[in-house]
Structures are given as C-alpha cells and as structure tokens.
Design brief:
The chain is α+β, with helices and mostly antiparallel strands. It folds into two domains: about 1-160 and about 285-290, Ribosomal Protein S5, domain 2 (2-Layer Sandwich); about 165-280, GHMP kinase, C-terminal domain (Alpha-Beta Plaits, 2-Layer Sandwich). Helix content is about 30%, strand content about 25%. It has nine helices and ten strands. The strands form two sheets. Strands 1, 2, 3, 4, 5 and 6 form a six-stranded mixed β-sheet that branches. A four-stranded antiparallel β-sheet has the order 8-9-7-10, covered by helices on one side. α1 runs parallel beside α2 (about 100-115), α4 packs across α6 and α6 (about 220-225) crosses α7. The chain is globular, with a radius of gyration of 19 Å. It binds cytidine-5'-monophosphate. Cytidine-5'-monophosphate binds near residues 24, 136, 179 and 180.
Length: about 300
C-alpha cells in the first residue's frame, strides 16, 4: 500500500474565446497548484476490478467517480489481466468548488498506478487518457503553474509563478456550482474549433504573483447561477483584498492581500456560512515530491 496526495488548483486567469461545435468552450487559462490536497491510499490486489472507498464527502464510489474511471482505464489497458486495485480516498478539497478535486484525484490515480504496476512508461497514453477523463485532468499530470488552451486540456508547463507576498485566501460558499451549468449560463457565441485561444497572454517571467491574476470570464455567468457569490465578491473587495477572483467555474473565490497575517482580520467581512482558508501556492518540484508517486516503488 502507498499513500499519495492530489493537490487542488486555482485558475489565476480564465478567458473564454467562444463555444465550439462539440459543445465545449475554447479557453485560455493559467492553472496554479495550491497546498490543499486529498489523500489516496492505493494498493494492488490479485483480484480484478476497482474497489473504491470515499471518506470526507458524499460522493459515489463507482463509475460516476473520476478516480474510479481512471483506475478502470489503467487496469483495462496497462495492467496484467486479473489484477485490480483498492483505493481509499480521503476528501479534503471541497466538491463543486472549481478547485479541480475530482480531476486531481483521477490524475493522481493514473500517476500512482504507473508507479505501482510499473508498465513500460507511456507518457502519450497518460495524456490521452487524462484528456478523455475530463478537460481539467491533463493539468494535474503537470502541476505547478501551467497554461491551458483548447478545452483547457492542451497544457504548456510554465516556470513557477512566484509565491504571493501577502495572504492568499480561499472563500468557500456552502453551495457548490456545476461546471456544465455555469458554461451554459455564459451563452458564449459559437466559434471555429481550433486555434482561437492557443496563444493566450502569460505574464513575463519575474512578474509578481498579483500580476498573474487576470480576468475570469465565467464570473458573470456564475454570479447569475449563484447570486450570493456576487455578494461575497463585493465583501472580499471591501475587505481590502488587492485581487479577488473566482477559481474555474466556481464556487470558490480567492482573495489576495498585500500583507501577510491579515486573513483573520478580513474574515469579519464574510457573510455567515462562508468557510475561509489561507493557502500557499506550490511550485512544480514541491508538488512532485509531495504527491508521493515519485518515491513509491512497484509492489
Ligand atoms: O470535461 P469535464 O467533464 O470536466 O467538463 C464538464 C462540463 O463543463 C462539460 O460537459 C461542458 O459542459 C463544460 N465545459 C465546457 N468547456 C470547457 C470545459 C468544460 O463547456 N472547456
């Protein structure tokens, strides 16, 4: 048995170019790993199939769970016949929050099973399978700071954005948001499928963290679906944050302050029911070594 951690992301920016013929939206986005993680205990077993146990959140433990689907794909295509896996997933990343928890779990399962089964390395298979599982999954094979184009699944790793100078705070409303519903509410105009958003803007190297925080085009749509989120956004601006942004399709907002140690003071601005959490960004090397799949050997 080995233990792995799958870290959440925030989107420092997310621009939508339009709606593609396949129903997805063409994006350019900058992903950033943060130090909020789910824990997965994974072991091989000499019995076919996936056994998944989820703790800490009310989530299905069958094909509806992306971690389950990732394990199934691996067993089907890259493990000896008749072998299976048992996974215990401890959820700490909120669900429906725009933090990529489910996608992170799926990517961690793929990376972990590569270690535990040690088949001939096949990075192309990993990429392909990640993209099939969900638009956000490929980023979680890369971690750190990365640019995403296409559906958000064409990933270009970037040099790590510098850590924030002051506090970076997640604001977590009790209500989550459905990604599909937020994209629907956007009502974006149709575009040609390819290449539109491929060359999105990324800050020059050396730019401070705040300069990496750009626009999120999904905010107006998410505020329409969940009006309380617009009020929370206003509270965060009033609390003195230098930047306030939604992550992905929400419902998490993040607020960036100039000074460290102000998060607790800002908390008096939050409406009832808001959970807040100070987080750090994680660079690619730190993400790799904390994930656990580099050190886990085959069993
Ligand atoms: O790929 P994933 O299953 O995570 O996407 C969930 C839903 O979000 C999609 O079914 C689609 O409605 C929407 N989506 C989109 N454009 C993207 C990513 C997701 O419209 N680039």
């Amino acid at each position: 048995m080995a233990t792995f951690r799958s870290f959440a992301k925030i989107n420092l920016s997310l621009r939508v170019a339009g709606r593609r013929a396949d129903g997805y939206h063409e994006l350019s986005t900058v992903f950033q790993t943060i130090d909020l993680a789910d824990e997965l205990e994974i072991r091989r077993r000499l019995q076919a199939g996936v056994e998944l146990e989820v703790r800490g959140a009310d989530l299905p433990s069958d094909e509806r769970n992306l971690a389950y689907r990732a394990a199934e794909a691996f067993l089907r295509e890259r493990a000896p016949a008749g072998e299976g896996v048992s996974i215990r997933l401890e959820k700490r990343i909120p669900v429906g929050a725009g933090l990529g928890g489910g996608s992170a779990n799926a990517a961690t399962v793929l990376l972990a099973l590569e270690r535990l089964f040690a088949p001939a390395p096949d990075p192309a298979w990993l990429q392909r399978t990640a993209r099939r599982l969900g638009a956000d999954v490929p980023f979680f094979l890369v971690g750190g700071t990365a640019f995403g184009a296409g559906r958000g699944d064409v990933i270009r790793p970037l040099a790590d954005a510098p850590p924030p100078r002051g506090d970076l705070v997640l604001l977590l409303p009790a209500a989550g948001l459905s990604t599909a519903e937020v994209f629907d509410a956007l009502g974006a105009a149709p575009i040609a499928d390819r290449g539109v958003a491929a060359a999105g803007a990324v800050p020059t190297s050396g730019a401070e963290f705040a300069a990496w925080v750009g626009a999120n085009d999904l905010e107006p749509a998410a505020f329409r679906v969940l009006p309380a989120l617009a009020a929370l956004y206003t509270s965060a601006v009033r609390s003195g944050a230098r930047r306030v942004r939604m992550s992905g399709s929400g419902s998490t907002l993040f607020a960036l302050y100039d000074a460290a140690g102000v998060a607790a003071e800002a908390a008096r601005f939050w409406p009832a029911g808001i959970v807040w959490k100070r987080v750090e960004t994680l660079g690619r090397a730190a993400w790799r070594s904390a994930g656990g799949w580099e050190s886990a050997g085959g069993e």
